[in-house]
Amino acid sequence: MEAKDVEVTAGTRDFEPRIVAFCCNYCAYAAADLAGSMRLSYPANVKVIRLPCSGKVEITYLLKALEDGADGVMVAGCLEGDCHFMEGNYRAKRKVRHAKRLVEEIGLESERVEMFNLSSAMAGRFAEIIREMTERIRKLGPSPLRKG
Amino acid sequence: MIVGERKPMGEILEMIAPHEKVLLLGCGTCVTVCLAGGEREVGILAAQLRIHAKKEGKDLQIEEHTIERQCENEWVDEIKSRVEGVDAVMSMACGVGVQLVAEMYPEKAILPALNTTFMGYPVQHGTWLENCRGCGNCVLHLSGGVCPITRCAKSLMNGPCGGSQDGKCEIDEDIECAWQVIYERLKSGGRLDWMNNYQPPRNWSTAGSGGPRKSVKIEEVVD
Q1: Assigned domain for A23 exists
Q2: Looking at domain B2-117, what is its CATH homologous superfamily?
Q3: Domain boundaries in chain B?
Q4: Is the pLDDT confidence value at A10 over 50?
Q5: Who among B47, B55, B57 is closest to A63 (CB)?
Q6: Number of domains in chain A
Q7: Which residue in A18, A78, A122, B12 has the fewest CB atoms around it within 10 Å?
Q8: What is the DSSP letter of A87?
Q9: How far apart are CA A137 and CA B1, in angstroms?
Q10: pLDDT surpassing 50 at residue B86
Q11: Is A118 part of any domain?
């Protein structure tokens, strides 16, 4: 779960967002795998970290990723009502909502943190989510923590 | 347990501003259980402070540590070497812990990260209700185990006031009328006749308005 590998030094020129995606093993991670098998292309800006359930995500994971230079972080869990562990994705939703408040109060844009829901069969949607998130972060610009 | 809430970020940043190396000190007892100042909350606040400092280009080092209890000398004594290495300690304990840390390390700036709110228990995960004011003169045996001092907005001792409506208190429709709760509790236990017991005017001298209270167990005192 170490997010050190997202340490980056890029400037604002030719900005390629660095995004860390915490993905549930039962949906988003499988969807990412399927997207690969289907040869669906999506931006290579995302680093995927597998979780046993999106409910396992801790707010500190999200903050640590941002602290270590990620421009955006996302959590991808099962469709609402379809969590393998009944309600993990609802817990993740609440945590992400809270993480948005936490980053906002220290002056970062809350849009840098987001939650998505999809099933393991939705490879196309996974690619679309990554495109959406990459474009969103590209518009926001690099994380202010990357100045140095 | 003692319940606390993190202070607004603006206040925390203002307190931290003059310092470059800060020990963020969690407490492993009440505030861990009420999810306000334990190891996890220390991690979250530390990350927030580091992100803010990086963003503002400030040089700030945050050391994270959580001890079992900040309200007992033995535990606070253990962090001596950590405290020596920093400019300030930001405590995530209740006011008791903050004060003991300040007393044991008077040369350091000791900063409170929490507002200590009340003594209570969780009515559901994530929601705590105040149950005890620590008034020093317990009456729970007379009121079906529901504290009228704490849970009645007027601390009435002989039944509800006219503001009790549909079982709710007039100050807030989300607050139950304590005397309605007491009535229901006594009724379900077949003790409704207790409602007829008249309580004379209360002796409030134990309730803390005479300065800090002290409790001495003489048989336990070690000179």
Answers
A1: yes
A2: Response regulator (3.40.50.2300)
A3: 2-117, 133-200
A4: no
A5: B47
A6: 1
A7: A122
A8: S
A9: 43
A10: yes
A11: yes
User: How far does B167 lie from chain A, in Å, by closest CA?
Assistant: 32
Q: ipTM above 0.90?
A: no
pLDDT band for position A148 (cuts 50, 70, 90): low
Place B66 in a pLDDT band, splitting at 50, 70 and 90.
very high
Residue A35 CB coordination number (10 Å): 20
**Interface membership of B115 toward A (CB under 8 Å):** no
CATH code for position A123:
3.40.50
Residue A9: pLDDT over 50: no
Residue B118 and residue B95 in contact, taking contact as beta carbons nearer than 8 Å: no
Range of A83's domain? 17-143
Helix A59-67 vs helix B39-56: angle between axes, to the nearest 10 degrees?
A: 20
B159 close to A (CB below 8 A): no
pLDDT band at A11 (very low <50, low <70, confident <90, very high): very low
Q: What is the pLDDT of residue B149?
A: 97
Identify the burial level of A12 via C-beta atoms within 10 angstroms of its C-beta, where 0-12 means exposed, 13-18 middle and 19 or more buried.
exposed
